[in-house]
Design brief:
Distance between the termini: 62 Å
Shape: elongated
Helix content: 25-40%
Strand content: 15-25%
Order of helices and strands: EEHEEHHEEEHEHHHEEEH
Number of strands: 11
Strand order of the largest sheet: 5-6-8-9-11
Oligomer: single chain
Number of helices: 8
Length: 286
Amino acid sequence: MIDIVFEIQTNDENKFSLGFPESLKVGDINKIEKFINIKYVGIKDGNDELTGKEYKYHQVDFLYNDKDFKEFLLNKLNEQENNEVSLSEILEDMGKLLANYIKEKDVEKIIGDLGEAYFLFLLEKNDIDWTKYYHIDDEEIYDFTINSLTYIDIKTSTNNKNLVHINLEQIKNVTNKNINFIIIKVNKIRGKNTIIDILAKLKYKNNFINSMIKKYSSEEAKKIIELYTLDLDEEIYILDDKLIPIIDINNKGALVKAKFEISTANASICTDQKLKEIFIPKNSKA
């Protein structure tokens, strides 16, 4: 176990910094420099606020400030049992973990964006102006707000399991809301429609859509997006409010985040008529 690994407070939202014991040998600095998301800053002076004792430490910046990865990394470091390894060897392992983590997050994001792009395509096909309802902010609880009582969230998956993940915030205390989850299953087959193909077919191209097209047009992105495709007549499924559990929480205490696995085995096909009924209620106009 490494003696002391601690987080260094910083106001930079794009990175997090860790301090490693000075006793660790640096090792081959070139190993550290090859990872673009990790920067070895050098020896820094520290001061223990409780004892007033001064000490020195190695500062390392991780140029990818992700809360989940940071927690995972700190746990991983605290499991280290070999104090004989050098800092460069430790960071080489951490660099590989971070590179894989970023890749997985990128793939997860591409799959999610592909599902949402396809849903926008289906709305346009049914003459529904999605710009009135769609939330481009990832921090929103649901992807679409139809009115103060009706919400839709898109769940995209590549697996063959009849499961999707739903956040606590999406199903807590929603007794008086009509929540619908649209299920879209992405094919991992080349030759069908990538996210770029589908975005290009959209009639409404606001700044958000144009920024997505630009992002996924890079050579690096193309290598990934070509692996995940959809037919333009792909069936989508709906989990309506009758199949969604409602969790009543009066006091969640220190609970920060929770996810639930929801079965989609009883999800029904979401037809064009069903879409129109959701987005264009009776006695209203598109």
